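Dataset card, provenance and construction

Sequences and ligand SMILES were collected as paired inputs. For each pair, a complete structure of the chain with the small molecule in place was predicted and serialized as structure tokens. The example below shows a pair involving fe (ii) ion. Curators did not alter the output after generation; any descriptive sentences attached to a record were derived from the structure itself.
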Amino acid sequence: MSTVYVDPAFQSDRMMNEIYQGAIVVREHSAATEQFAAHARAQIEAAFDGMDPRRAQHQLEVESFVDRFAPLKSSFIHDPRSRDGMRAILSELGFDADDTYIDVPRMRVSTSSGYLTSGVAYAHHPHRDTWYSAPMAQVNWWLPIYDYATSAGMAFHPQYWSRAVRNGSDAFDYYNWNAKGRKEARLHVRSDTRVQPHAEEPLDLDPELRIVVRPGGIVAFSAAQLHSTCPNTSGESRWSVDFRTVSLDHVIALRGASNQDSRPSGTSLRDFVRMRDGGAMPEEVARAYDDRLSVEGEFVYSGAEAQR
Ligand SMILES: [Fe+2]
């Protein structure tokens, strides 16, 4: 059983609790989300001067598409309006600015018909973010920037919410990934050979749940939810932004979704900064999630790799 709440009356606390139980929360429209999507649209349209960004893949060589998209992805992360926009979305929902920590906003493009499915536009196989070292208290937020067809969206596989999947997360090391895997994203244009955690058993993915929401809407779900990028056959690129939040209180109290099968090394907690002022995640809190004393690699995802 899985529940999708559409425009629920409840806000932050109950919302997190529902999400930790496997619910997906959809807001059909909010002023702050619309403003954030408009900000993203303006950045994309400037980068693809004059072209319709949904159709640009039909006009550009794939390398030229990547040359426009990679710097856009990076500048969007560092744009103060992006940070303010995420805060506004969360404030509308009653999230506490001192307890809530946010990571960076990631702009994504899912191109149609296999034009670009690797590197900066990696088409995600079915995965839980917790296989990639996300904390069990993490909430993922996903919003579209343009209208998109159902085949261009994202799929959820809620039948695995409380069912373990044999997977490769025990070989995944977050700090090593920050140091190496991410930085190579731009190099993976035609194929993607980076080692990532996959399911290691056949998955039963039907039926899958696809949510289609218009720009100005947003979808929130647990990092432990099994999800994937749909094979986009719509003829148009789908543009979206996602970001993640955690409640500091919940992280400290080890609250969140229950862990079925995630066993990565390291934690992405240091990527999160305080909603109010960008203050760092307390090191002792992150350290409590580490499974070893010394670390090789990089603790934090800086978003700088797309510029390299
Ligand atoms: Fe994901």
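Derived descriptions for this record:
The radius of gyration is 18 Å.
The pocket of fe (ii) ion is lined by residues 124, 127, 129, 227 (CB under 6 Å).
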